[in-house]
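Re: weekly structure request thread

Next one in the queue (186 aa):
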Amino acid sequence: MRPSLPIETDRLLLRAYRLDDFDVFHDIRSRPDVVRYLYFDVQSPEESRESLAKRVDQWYVEKEGEALILAVERKDTGELIGDVVLFWHSEVHRRGELGFILHPDHHGHGFGAEAAREVLRLGFEELGLHRVEGRCDARNTASARLLERLGMRREGLFLENEFVKGEWCDELVLAMLDREWKGTQA
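Done, posted below.
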């Protein structure tokens, strides 16, 4: 799947990352409040530069195991505010996973849901996925609420499922099937 970019929503542009996104990209990934529930810790400028360089060419997927990563930009200001990700986990089982990171200054305005909804559309309607999951640390109530607003249902709580940043963490799994997606579009 190679989407035609940028993808325009009501208030956002979803586009490929560019190397000149570094300042905002690093600002987001160097914040303890942003990475608290993520697998990586606060990034140094060098780590952010390396991470951004990898993302520049990840705006499409060709086979399972790859991730579609789109920068999220506000149309009204031109500001980069985060990214949305669609992991293609299995071609046979037609399964993917949704992820997102937004700068805290842009929380609470529906930008995350608007961007994630478009990535769900890509996954179900263009990639032909049967199931898309959203996974988060069970303490990350904001992400869980966003996934629920998208129409995902809670499927499981895995107690002490992962050892992250020196502690056992509970993992919450939400999901949506293609028929459920179609029901949200009616």
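The longest helix spans residues 111-126. The beta strands are 7-8, 12-15, 67-74, 80-90, 95-102, 131-137, 153-164, 167-177.
Next request, please.
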